[in-house]
Amino acid sequence: MAGVKSILPNCGLYRTSKALPEHESEVPAGVLVYFHNHSESGLPVVIVPEHNILNRWHFHGAGIPFRGLSWADSLVKLPGEGFYSLRKGLDFEGGTWPKGTLVQLGYNKEGTPILFIGQQRAQMAENDLFFSDRGVGITREQLAVLEPLSVFIEPAAQGAHTTGTH
To answer: Looking at per-residue confidence, does 4 or 52 come out higher?
Structure first.
């Protein structure tokens, strides 16, 4: 499989458009996955989300290796979970968020994007922003209004649960 990594998609979040052959029940069409174009075996792997903490999915384990490179081409790339601002106002059922609004992007297990609005709570003693665990579903086309933001994240305490792949 030498050189295969260079023809595969980049590692990251994807939505499946086809079931993974020989693993259809574990990785059906229309689900969120984390794709790695490499592994210790040299094969690409796909990992399904295990649980969600703070509106971010956690992917655990070595993943499911596969040989069908054409299946990797069927994956639909998704923007990373995290913090964004709106490049322009966003209309959705129940309201409008203005240009520049701070949002957190997450997904459901089907890979449908969900936005969580950043809120400052009046009753809080600390100067923290709050993101609810209930967001607003948006279309994949609406992802184009998101502008990535850099947000400093404190280093995790030793033994603390961190986001991402493990």
So the answer is: 52
Nearest partner of 143 among 113, 100, 98, 111, judged by Cα: 113
pLDDT at 38: 82
Task: Check whether residue 71 and residue 94 sit in a common domain.
Answer: no
Task: Provide the domain count of the chain.
Answer: 2
Residues 6+ apart with CB under 8 A from 32: 13, 14, 15, 48, 49, 57, 78, 107, 108, 109, 110, 111
Q: What is the DSSP string of 106-161?
A: EE-TT--EEEEEEEE-TT-SS--EEE-S--EE--SGGGGGEEE-----PPPPTT--
- Residue scoring higher pLDDT (10 or 160): 10
pLDDT tens per residue, range 62-95: 899 998 888 999 999 999 999 999 999 998 888 8
What are the tokens at 53?
């903490």
Tokens of 64: 């499911």
At residue 136, what are phi and psi to the nearest 5 degrees? -115, 120
Do 11 and 26 lie in one domain? The reply is yes
Mode of pairing for the β-strands spanning 164-165 and 56-59: parallel
- Rounded to 5 degrees, what are φ and ψ at 43? -90, 150
- Report the Cα–Cα distance between both ends of the chain, in Å, rounded: 24
